[in-house]
# Entry
Amino acid sequence: MRRRARASGEFDLIARVEKRTRLPRSDVLLGIGDDAAALRPPAGQCLVACVDALIEGVHFPRATAPADVGWKALAVNLSDLAAMGAMPRWATLSLTLPRSDPAWLDGFLRGWQRLARRHRVALVGGDTTRGPRAIAVQVLGSAPWRKLLRRSGARVGDSIWVSGTLGDAAAGLALVRRRLRGVNAADARFLRGRLDRPEPRVALGVGLRGRAHACIDVSDGLAQDLGHILVAAGVGATIDAECLPVSPALQRAVPDARRLLAHALNGGDDYELCFTAARARDDRIVALGRALGLRLTRIGRVTAARGLLLRTSSGRHVEYAARGYAHFR
Ligand code: ADP
Ligand code: MG
# Structure
């Protein structure tokens, strides 16, 4: 096709991608190099697919290191599969670059491959075009259909859990935008790391198969993403403001209690998992977190009354309206 970057070395770039992302998997029958890839999902499981685009200036600041972009482009998709309880296997990559830029590409692929190796995800195809810098990644994985973690499965009385800590990535972004100041260097590094190198909770998602009733990854803020579960299941929730897990770095960076709470509730880009499970399973969930070395915090419970109620430190219940991230708003 014309209008592509053929003249500026599209094929050289593809060869570079192929060479730097090699990762053998026996379920890849045909990878990069033909008109399409051929893959063999495990017998008896369903194929689980997701795609996410990252646009420069929208999803990552212009100054982001290419290796961080490569890591994050894959991470946000692995996080979506994790939220389904699916095991990631393969990825495709649509790469749009303003010009042939092997140095940028090498950095991107370094970050990509670091995470890809960790989760054994093979890059099996993609597309390379010229235009404003944008990356679209599709990840394919598999799971037993009946154990898939869906948003709609939440039941009244369930405990609501969240992994890791909330609000760190939003603080990292505030640092980049210079809207947050006076943060010590070590805390700033931690918060930036949470923004640039989110850890997709793949092992947790798989561990929750058959244990959790509903699950979502927190990409747009806890209140908004939990809201999706509540709407899908036709239920409500009460959240304990005091229980929301926040890192020591975030507490130091945002000492004001109200602003800290806003970060934890509305901050996007953390890519932790929020899930619901029967109360009778509380101990099993705690044990799972311990086995994975991952902090899991019970933050509230599912209620029959619709909407999201926040229980504050004074014991008051306040109705909560989500203010997470939404495009076109
Ligand atoms: P076509 O014109 O048939 O789409 P391309 O020249 O776009 O073929 O791609 C050739 C091969 O390289 C295909 O296997 C394609 O999947 C792979 N490919 C192209 N760009 C990328 C990329 N950015 N990442 C991974 N694979 C890619
Ligand atoms: Mg193509």
In short: Residues 14, 17, 32-35, 93, 95, 123, 125-128 surround adenosine-5'-diphosphate (ligand 1) (CB under 6 Å). The radius of gyration is 20 Å.
